[in-house]
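Retro notes
What went well: the complex prediction finally ran end to end.
Inputs used:
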Amino acid sequence: DSDIQKKIDHEIRMRDGACKLLAACSQRDQALEAAKSLQTCSTRIMAYMSELQRMKEAQVMQNVPRSDAGPMDGRLPCKGKVAISLRIPLMWKDTEYFKNKGNEASPGFELRVELYSCCSEDDYSAGSTPRKLASKLSSSLGRSAGKKLRAAMEPGACSPVSNGGAAPLLLPVPSVGPKYHLLAHTTLSLSHVQDSFRTHDFTISGNECSYWLPLYGSMCCRLAAQPHCMTQRMMGGWLKVKQCGGDPQTWTKVYAVLKATSLFCYQRQEDVEANVEPALTIGINKETRIRASEKDPHSKGQNICISNRYGGEEVTHTLNTESREDTHRWMEAFWQHFYDMQWRQCCDDLMKIELPSPRKPAPVTPKQGSLYHEMIESSDDLTSTVSDILARRMQELELRSQLGTSPTWMSVFEENCPKSTGLSFRPCSSRLSGHSPHSPHCLPSRSPVSPHRRPQLGLLASDASLTSDSDSHCSTSPCCRRHGWPEPSSNFPLLSSSPSRLRPRTLSLDAKLSTLRGRGYGGGGTFQCSCQPPSSSLLAPLPAASRSPLSQRSTQTTLSCSSSTSSNSSSNSEGSHSPESSEGGPFSRPSPARRSLRNLRARLDPRNWLQSQV
Amino acid sequence: LPAQDQPAGKPVTAVVQKIEIQKLRQGDNLILGFSIGGGIDQDPGQNPFSEDKSDKGIYVTRITPGGPAEVADLRVGDKIMQVNGWDMTVVTHDQARKKLTKKKEEVVRLLITRKSLEEAVKHSKGCHPRQ
């Protein structure tokens, strides 16, 4: 009891420290780390509090006299070690892997996996952004989500380990600083324990921030559990064994150890440690029947009969103990063992739980040629920027296109790819909310129509809130004028267009984002989770410029298509670049390679068949 | 190519069905509850629903469960031929969208064609040789 209280106090101190750090730090990375600590500390505190609550309740319950106490009352199944390793497929990165080293739990445990992310919304200067975004998101996701898992799993030996949402305690949250938002969650329990990887559905939180991060809606995990009855020796002692059907007088003295699914009988006690093969192994599993018989006239103690069915045959072993007490102890042990079989499938075979090695790289997958693979792999050392990667990529692909092979990563976006079926892509909701009051352009905020949609197959479709007054408002809303890609001349629609056909005002992902940020947070310097940008914009920097003249009024109102955010910048700045450098926030740094990068990104946009919601 | 420069559409014969959808008001918007893809300015090869991969028509790509379109029995894969009398076979993507989202209209009457319709008709023709 006091143990938990100490833990709570410790976490509270940690949390205060994190708050102070958050208020004081100026570096982005520091802030992110501090926010993470804050989140995890808070969660731990909540969990400990609810744990404490439960214990108090249990105490109260115990004091209440119970009328009919059965033989099993008060008996608890053994605890076990539960560990999870999971991977979450992400849109820009193949997967993110997490591993947890294992926590104590009882069979009724509930493991709540929550995925948090924090948007780092500044640093959107062209060129450097995607690298930073990718690495920040991936690392913050990796570390924070990893830690979140640990935090969620840590509290004590008792289940459930859910986020103590029931705790009435309200912890003050600092108003500044990066905030982590719950994107998705799922709850796992004993029935999900399996020795292999399984796919589970994520419940997407459906808040604004979920749209920002394109999750496929599922995660793969291996939830392993090692109940103690499988790993520890539950009972040991000297017994005499005879086999039924044989000479009633032939007893063999053995040192028996009850562990996992068997009673191992050794000739000598030393053999147990010496890893010598047991002389006899009697299966003890859920099919086994054990009963104590009447006192054997030929021996001192009582007999215990263990019956198993092997195939069609029933085999019975009879044990004899030295004394009554021994018999009792053994029977107790067997009863407990059966009770422990509440761990069900975990008692069939021992599941391995590896201790995660300190800095284990993600499992090596065969090089799929995924652009995003490459992005992440390169971002490990943070030396090359995405623009470099993309440039290299373009060259490779152009070479290959001449040879007639199709880039493999395009298949992710093809509708017939078997990989994409079965994945439920969570479409993003794009909207603009909040705008700088001195913006000359009309900016009504519209709420998304419905955040929960499942598009067909693997097509990327965006849910955009549509204004049906596009006709009345503006002569041409910008997205009307945005056309899809120039028609492909070959099989590679992304690559075939020559640069001359690209519009001059092709704006890139980061430009959109920074514009949005700039508009949304004219003040700059404050960290707020920006929920505006659709996750589509992460992937689809469509060329924004239009051929026809745009009315000055028509700008950010209609976001009818994917990456519609591109429209506002282009329409605002007819002749000039969008103000991404000026409004990017305190950490933005303009990059010299902006234009070529934009072109590259525009050409690499895999989404070139528009869909509109009506 | 802009609409005026597009080559003329090929004459089309199709089995069509009328579908009338009452728009649903959601806040400021009137919605139909489906998504469209296609258009003469779009790459028809990307259309997963069309049989003819040079078909630049407007197709229904998604239906909101429980939405007005679903209620009216519009289906994914339907090709929209007309909206309230306006042709949809030779329009840009955005022109199509606009025809469907006129604020003053609360009902859209679509003429759609779908493969299963053609199949059904063909089948029924086959069963009744005397046509």
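What we learned: DSSP finds 15 helices and 18 strands in chain A.
What to try next: split runs per interface for comparison.
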